[in-house]
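Tip: read the tokens left to right.
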């Protein structure tokens, strides 16, 4: 009886010295604090900004093309307004990317929000996908999708830059100055 009491005391002293009541529980890894908090892994600056930089680069490339096409009488601001009106889809995509980054930012700081999205909203789909497709095929499929996405963006850029035809006239206007309108005639 006496040995049993001393062994209990030793176990209690050990558990109080480590600060947890579970003696066999694994200790959290200090290199990954987001796992113990239950939040999303924080993104690096590059991962936060790469798509926004891509959209900004594409937008300014289109503005530069518009500016060069119309020549010196048009200002840079008029070219930006023209592209912003004609290529609204690009601005909508940039807005969706800002919302996505805001979602990631909140997921990195709020465990309940992260748990709702990872377990309730996307949990069943993710579990089904991981059961059906092995990791190697998922990796290969992701690479193919990335290449297709890049090719789609490049084809859109090519189409926008080569969309003028000789012998055709294009009307233009400035959304900042409603009275500023004109016609551009492309000749051989």
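Filled-in amino acids:
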């Amino acid at each position: 009886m006496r040995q049993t009491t001393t062994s209990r005391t030793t176990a209690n002293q050990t558990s109080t010295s480590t600060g947890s009541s579970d003696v066999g529980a694994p200790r959290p890894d200090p290199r990954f604090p987001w796992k113990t908090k239950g939040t999303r892994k924080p993104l690096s600056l590059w991962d936060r900004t790469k798509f926004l930089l891509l959209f900004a680069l594409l937008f300014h490339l289109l503005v530069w093309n518009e500016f060069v096409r119309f020549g010196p009488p048009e200002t840079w601001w008029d070219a930006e307004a023209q592209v912003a009106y004609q290529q609204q889809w690009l601005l909508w995509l940039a807005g969706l990317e800002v919302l996505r980054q805001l979602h990631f930012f909140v997921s990195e700081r709020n465990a309940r929000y992260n748990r709702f999205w990872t377990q309730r909203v996307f949990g069943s789909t993710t579990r089904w996908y991981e059961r059906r497709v092995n990791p190697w095929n998922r990796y290969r499929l992701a690479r193919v999708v990335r290449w297709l996405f890049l090719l789609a963006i490049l084809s859109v850029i090519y189409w926008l830059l080569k969309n003028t035809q000789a012998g055709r006239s294009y009307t233009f206007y400035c959304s900042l100055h409603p009275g500023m309108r004109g016609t551009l005639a492309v000749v051989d």
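Helices lie at 2-18, 33-37, 45-70, 76-86, 88-109, 111-121, 123-132, 135-161. Residues 44-164+171-181 form one domain.
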